Each structure stands twice: as C-alpha cells, then as structure tokens.
C-alpha cells in the first residue's frame, strides 16, 4: 500500500497539508490520527475542515469525544465525524456511546487516539502519524485499503510551498 512522508516546517505547512487532504476526501473514509499530545492532530483536522468548506469554529472533541461537522464534497453536503478518544477510560465506552454507528459509507470519520478503542474501531483507510520534530512536525500518511490508496494516489502536496 502507498505511503507518503514529509517534514512540516511550521503551522502554515500543517494547514496546507489539511487543505491537500480535504481535496482527496471521499464518503466512507476512515482516518486515524496518531501522535503525542500537542503533535497537531486537532490542528490538522481543523485545517482539513475549513478547507472542505466548514465555516464555523472547530472545537477539539477532547471532552465531548465527538464533534460532528457538515462539509461539502463535490457540491454535496456530507457529515464528517471528528472523534478524540483520549479521555476514554475503557474501550467499551466506544460501544456504549454508540460511536460504531457513525462509521458508514455516507460519512467521513476522523479519529484521534484510535488505540484507546483497541480493536473495536473499523479499520482505517488512512493512518496519519504526526510527530513533533526539532523544528516543525514529521508526518507520514499510510494507506490501508483500496479507498485509502486511491486518496494517496490523488494526493498532491509539497511542504516547501
């Protein structure tokens, strides 16, 4: 499966990455975001949402665990569900909250801290790994499915622009 890596020098590069990802979103896509606290997972999601046409404030779902948004893809509204599972105490909370029902062919799900739900989550189409580097961030995108591979094949981004 294809993968992509880069070094993001600043916050503008992270925002540009979010915009590039917004251009390859497809309904049914599941994206996992991996990285330590403060690595930029929510910042990347915020940039992606704004680039996909969401006009409002993008809140971190750290305390609510889930924030739903409506974005535009090819002129059609689609729900993007932004999960942050950091505060889950046990994987069963994912099932008890009914979160599994949000993963469907007509929504996009972006999940921060997916390891907190252990094996209860659907498989990711794309894994995004973000790490804090000496200056900026390291980022890796990994496709895990045909849909994820299709996204990466259409993905165009240069962190030095």
Give structural notes.
It is a single chain. The protein is of the alpha/beta class. The protein has a single domain (3-154), classed as P-loop containing nucleotide triphosphate hydrolases (Rossmann fold). It contains four helices and seven strands. The chain has a seven-stranded mixed sheet. Helix 3 links the parallel strand 4 and strand 5 (107-112). Helix 1 crosses helix 2. The radius of gyration is 15 Å and the shape is globular. The mean pLDDT is 89.
Question: Summed up, what is this model?
Answer:
The protein has helices at residues 11-22, 41-51, 92-96, 146-154; strands spanning 3-8, 30-34, 66-73, 76-84, 107-112, 126-132, 137-143. It contains four helices and seven strands. Strand 6 and strand 7 form a beta hairpin.
Q: What is this structure's SSE topology?
A:
Elements: E1 3-8, H1 11-22, E2 30-34, H2 41-51, E3 66-73, E4 76-84, H3 92-96, E5 107-112, E6 126-132, E7 137-143, H4 146-154
Parallel strand pairs: 2-5, 2-6, 4-5
Antiparallel strand pairs: 1-7, 3-4, 6-7
Helix pairs in contact: 1-2
CATH homologous superfamily (4th level) name? P-loop containing nucleotide triphosphate hydrolases
Tell me the CATH architecture: 3-Layer(aba) Sandwich
CATH topology: Rossmann fold
The rounded distance between the terminal residues' Cα atoms is 26 Å
Structural domain tally:
1
User: Secondary-structure element order, as H and E?
Assistant: EHEHEEHEEEH
Indicate the mean pLDDT. 89
Strand tally, please? Answer: 7
Shape assignment:
globular
Helix content: 10-25%
Main sheet overview? 7 strands, mixed
**Low-confidence stretches at least 5 residues in length (pLDDT < 50)?**
none
Cα gyration radius (Å): 15 Å
Indicate the CATH class: Alpha Beta
Query: What structural class do you assign from the helix and strand content?
Result: alpha/beta
* Total of DSSP H or I helical runs spanning 4+ residues: 4
Strand coverage percent: 25-35%
């Amino acid at each position: 499966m294809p993968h992509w890596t880069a070094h993001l020098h600043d916050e503008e590069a992270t925002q540009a990455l979010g915009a590039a990802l917004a251009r390859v979103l497809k309904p049914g896509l599941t994206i996992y975001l991996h990285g330590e606290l403060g690595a930029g997972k929510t910042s990347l999601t915020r940039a992606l949402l704004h680039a996909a046409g969401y006009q409002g404030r993008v809140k971190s779902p750290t305390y609510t665990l889930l924030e739903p948004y409506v974005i535009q893809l090819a002129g059609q509204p689609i729900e993007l569900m932004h999960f942050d599972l950091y505060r889950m105490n046990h994987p069963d909370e994912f099932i008890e909250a009914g979160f599994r029902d949000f993963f469907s062919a007509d929504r996009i799900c972006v999940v921060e801290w997916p390891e907190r739900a252990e094996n209860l989550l659907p498989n990711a189409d794309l894994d995004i790994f973000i790490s804090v580097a000496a200056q900026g961030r390291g980022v890796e995108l990994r496709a895990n499915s045909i849909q994820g591979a299709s996204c990466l094949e259409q993905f165009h981004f240069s962190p030095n622009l």
